[in-house]
Write a structure and sequence with these properties.
Oligomer: single chain
Strand order of the largest sheet: 3-9-8-7-6-4-5
Strand content: 15-25%
Largest sheet: 7 strands, mixed
Amino acid sequence: MLDISHSNKTTQKTTKMDEFCNYREIYSPEQRKLISIEFQRVEGQHYLEHAGATLYSEKQLQEIARQLCNNLYANPHARNLSSKLTEDAVDIVRYEILTHFKTNPQEYSVIFTSGTTAALKLIAESFSYGSDCGTNGRFVYLQDNHTSVLGMRAYAKAMKCITFDDAFNALSCDTGSREGKDDCNSLFVFPAQSNFSGVKYPVAWIERVKRGALNRLLEQDCRNWFVALDASSYVATNELDLSTVKPDFVTLSFYKIFGYPTGLGALLVRNSSCHVLKKRYFGGGTVLMAQTLENTAVLRDVVHERFEDGTVPFLSILALKEGFNTIKRLNLTFDLISKHTFSLAQYVYRNLLCLHHANGRPVVVLYHDTTFENLCDQGAIVNFNVLRDDGEHVGYAEVLHFANLYGIHLRTGCFCNPGACQYFLKLSPEDVKRHFNVSLVCYNSVLLIVKKLGWSRVW
């Protein structure tokens, strides 16, 4: 399968696609000039892998280098003058992150991680499902989720995967809400936007889950529901307003937003929910007191100080400042970025839908939940397979190689989302096991078309 996800950065040339997407109306002449100057390396290239990693601005890197060359930054745990400079600069970035998501330190805390995966792992390792009465809650996740969410199951005693239809039936209205009686903690995890199809899931689900909307579906009576929102795909091109929606946990990776730095993400924790995270391991900088001869330790009270083990990657964190500055310098807003990238995806979707071979057969099969009519429901991801004129699939590896020849940057495979992949390709668990047994695994380059009942599937 192929995923075309458009960058919000453009080159100097104006194409028919740009004209369709109102490129000249969306961006002012000054913006177009700045964009062409700051992204010169993409001239002649067609970068359609924005969902994997956005493009950093060349000016952005220059400003980061200037900042590092002109300041003396040291380990923030040292408490000397250069250390204090670093600590203050990191705190400013924390505040800017919260401001970007329209919230404040009184409501949310920023815990820096190595990315979305590490943030999800932190929740999984720390979330307390039990209660004093001995009743355990449940880990519940949507079928359409990243592999990193599936890994969270290892820490849960009880779990449940809910399908698309079950989720929409249970959560699309308030009629199913039921307050529980058991004093246990249950956790529901879902993506704000699918990294596979680009569909945007209703953020209204957050409040409904917290009111017990899943109790009836799951035939349980849990009183305390918590929600973790995987916002990694969503925040790359959309505004997440935490003043109007209140997930308990939000996970994200900054390279999805700014392109640089990589290896840095965050877990945003609602302060009123942090009590449910029970930390076990502790590292340097997270304790008020620790003894060697006795198994005794007292963790710090401030949320981020308690969970950020060791020295944070402070130089990478400081680089985020120039990511925010780039958005401001180009006079961009995420509302504008969302409209532009959606219109690009809409253009691609409609044109792919119209492509046919000489015998009238379609050139592609598209995998989508919407018809790309409303950016409130659909993000800038177009997922498809290419078909031959006899209806057989063209292997994604073959398509990728041809795209590379023409400077088209695509992503192929299942994008670390096995649930959505199985759903759209109608693969049963037995099908997946059979593919695995013939060496079709994640990240390999084996081109395999599995024949079943006279038709083809490509994974």
